[in-house]
């Protein structure tokens, strides 16, 4: 199965960040989704997604898991569309799709469709202030 444009929709702007060495690398998720179009998907066991057991959203000191923020993530999980594959870097780390992963887990799925980038795309930003980046909704 390959990803395609059949699932075009407007999506809130998102960025994926990761520390690489001493730098903070940031990818524009919309760009990653465009890069994933037409690529083969693979079936990944949910047990292989190590981020399920890691601190994912609440990594910053002032980013607290309040009931309101948890409710926000629950709503996003409920709205997640499992027809969209998750995105993994070349090393198998999650780059996009945690709400889809959680939805699959809650619904009792054991596997999920994924696109694995190999090689991992270059980041869009290095050491950028993520809060200062643009956040327009875009069609993907």
TrEMBL record:
Protein name: ParB-like nuclease family protein
Lineage: Bacteria, Pseudomonadati, Pseudomonadota, Alphaproteobacteria, Rhodobacterales
């Amino acid at each position: 199965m390959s990803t395609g444009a059949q699932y075009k929709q407007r999506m809130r702007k998102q960025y994926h960040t990761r520390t690489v060495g001493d730098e903070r690398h940031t990818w524009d998720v919309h760009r990653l989704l465009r890069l994933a179009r037409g690529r083969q998907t693979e079936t990944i066991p949910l047990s292989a997604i190590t981020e399920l057991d890691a601190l994912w959203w609440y990594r910053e000191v002032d980013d607290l898991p309040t009931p309101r923020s948890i409710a926000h993530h629950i709503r996003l999980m409920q709205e997640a569309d499992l027809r969209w594959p998750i995105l993994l870097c070349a090393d198998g780390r999650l780059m996009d799709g945690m709400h889809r992963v959680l939805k699959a887990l809650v619904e009792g799925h054991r596997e999920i469709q994924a696109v694995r980038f190999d090689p991992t795309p270059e980041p869009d930003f290095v050491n950028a202030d993520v809060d200062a980046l643009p956040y327009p909704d875009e069609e993907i």
